[in-house]
Amino acid sequence: MNTDSLTAVPLGAGVVKRPTRLADGRELIYFDDPGTTLGAERAVDARTLDPRPTTATMRQDILTGDWITVASNRQNRAFLPPAHLDPLSPQTPTNPSEIPSLYDVAVFENKSPSFGPALDTATADAPAAVDPPRSDDDLEHLGLGRTRTSVGRCEVVCFSPEHEGSFGSLSRTRARTVIEAWADRTAALSALPGIRQVFPFENRGQEIGVTLPHPHGQIYAYPYVTPRTHRLLDTISRTSADLFARILDFEQAGERVVLRGEHWTAFVPFAARWPIEVHVLPHRHVADLAETTDAERDELAPFYLRLLRGIDALYDTPTPYIAAWHQAPVGRGRDAVRLNLQITSPRRAADKLKYLAGSEAAMGAWIGDVTPESQAERLRAALDTVPEVTA
Question: Where is each Galactose-1-phosphate uridyl transferase N-terminal domain found (predicted)?
Answer without folding.
Answer: 95-225
